Amino acid sequence: MTALDLERIRTALADDFTTIDFVEKTGSTNTDLMQATNVADGTVLLADEQLSGKGRLGRTWTAPAGSQVIFSVLLLPESLEHLGTLPLAAGLAVTDSIEGTVLKWPNDVHIDGNKLCGILAEAGPVGQAFKAAPKTELTKVEVGKAEVNKAEVNKAEVNKAELNKAVGSAAPSARVVVGMGINVTLTREDLPIEKATSLALEGRDTDRTELAIKVLKNLRRRIVQWENQDPQLLRAYRAVCSSLGQQVRLETPSGDVIGHVDDIGEDGRIMVAGEYYS
User: 10 Å Cβ neighbour count for 47?
Assistant: First the structure.
């Protein structure tokens, strides 16, 4: 097991995330950030081991210490109107980072039909969390008058979402946490299900520090698209969604649905046999 290089991660992501914390072992990084107090929008929590990792539809999973890249990110969006597309954005961050991967709806990352990564987004009350000023340095920002030095904005290439935070946008509507676990060095015996894999088993690079940096960098870029409702986000998702055009068995809280996948809606729902499901 190679330890994560936290200094390298924090340096590489200094302009992307407010705080990057680490714990060796925890029940669930998602639960930790959902329950944390005095935390800022853009906080990242990395872990070497999760004892009660959570998945979609209430599934749980575990893995040997140091065998995955495990992290969660806390967000404080102004609206939950488009929450359904956030897990898709998170999945894209992984396919952006690992060549040859695709997404089985909604956000299971696969290589050659085997699951490499699981992702879960959760929402709850804001609680004791706060929006932090963006990392970008501006020469002049007057929150009350919303005056921003245009030259400095252009120079820093501040995106619209970050600028809104700087000049006083609406209060956050909820606390949202996006968590993921990417299988890095798991052996065949370690895998929780038969149709799973790891980067090591696929003969890929197993540098966890470099992978964490790549995925979190791409996650920030995809979150910005999600916040701005950039149509390119769903176009990119559809391009790597292996479920499209396939005959599938979809597990839903009300039972299994079998049919042909016709589309992924603008709200992130999947269309099977002419009906949308979330």
Answer: 26
Mean pLDDT of 157-161: 44
Judged by DSSP in three states, 185 sits in: coil
Residue 172 Rama label (left phi>0; alpha psi -120 to 50; beta): beta
Q: Which two tokens stand for residue 138?
A: 């501006």
Q: What is the pLDDT of residue 158?
A: 43
Helices 208-227 and 232-240: crossing angle in degrees, nearest 10, is 130
- CA dist 262 and 271 (Å) reads 5
User: What confidence category does residue 155 fall into, taking pLDDT thresholds of 50, 70 and 90?
Assistant: very low
Q: At what angle do helices 86-97 and 232-240 cross, to 10 degrees?
A: 60
One-letter amino acid for residue 107 of the chain: N
Instruction: Give me the DSSP letters along 244-270.
Output: TT-EEEEEETTEEEEEEEEEE-TTSPE
Contact 99, 70 (CB under 8 A): no
272 pLDDT above the threshold of 60:
yes
